[in-house]
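hi!! sorry for the late reply, been swamped w classes. u asked for the two structures so here they r. pasted raw, havent cleaned anything up. first the sequence of the first protein and right below it the tokens
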Amino acid sequence: MKKKKKYLDLVLYPNRSLNIKSLIFLASIFTVLSFLISFYFINTGAWPVGIFLFIDLLIILLAFKFNYRNSKKYERIILKDALLIKKINFRGKEKIIKIEPSWLRLKVRSYNNSGHLEIISKGKSQIIGSYLNLTELKKLAKEIKKALILREKELSLNF
């Protein structure tokens, strides 16, 4: 039995701005500063300012939480006999998309130095790399194209 050859195996992660230690450090600085400033305004009689500072703090902490949670998702692209796109969300749930690579077209769509790579096959499209910048998307498209060309060459040699 012949083993299937992998022509491409890529894992795409979002760009992380902070790791967990620096995120906790930054959140604790915001918390301490908000508490001290709120305490000052509450003691001087301007208690609504303290309440609004605590609301701002909650919004900032929620934004940190969502940013860290969304940075856990990733995508994996595998090219064997078929192109497999595995999309793993922040909870670890996996969605597998199987595409026939013989009919494949790649389009890089961009808006303001961000965008996505669109993989089109038989009239259906899949979007990958929506968190990558434009230069990373172009490199990704070139890597996929090289692997597709290598696959087609090896398939044509087998005939």
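now the second protein. again sequence first, tokens right under
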Amino acid sequence: MLFDIKDDEIHRIRNIFSTFDEDGSGSITINELGDIYKALGHQFSDNEVVKMMCDIDLNKDGYVTFHEFLGLYKNHVFFKVQEEKIVEAFKMCDLDGNRYVTLDELKKIMYEVGENLEEPQIRSMLDEVDKDGDDRINFKEFIQLMKIQ
């Protein structure tokens, strides 16, 4: 699925987490949380890290387990990266730049990516995600289209 982290990425994140979990306790402190994000290539301000810590540290002990960190990573980093990819894909499909993908644009894109679909199949795709019935796909509907692919 589009918003799932692949096993090799989880393994990479776990290795970095373990590097910062120096005592092997299975948890890290707030200071280490910011360092892990830096090691993963993401910059957050001190305030953002504190907010993340407050959101996840429900028992207020000042520590984050790997499982908690993975949930945090998924919400604050991974989803944002995936969303950026979807925005780029939408821009590529919106050939005329009017912020909608029409049936004709969808046909052209399907042809260009090698999908040999007949117009009724493409129409069915459009109809499935066109929740407002305007015969075109807006960005919110496009996200749904990407999730079912």
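hope this helps!! also noticed smth abt the second:
The first strand starts at residue 27 and ends at 29.
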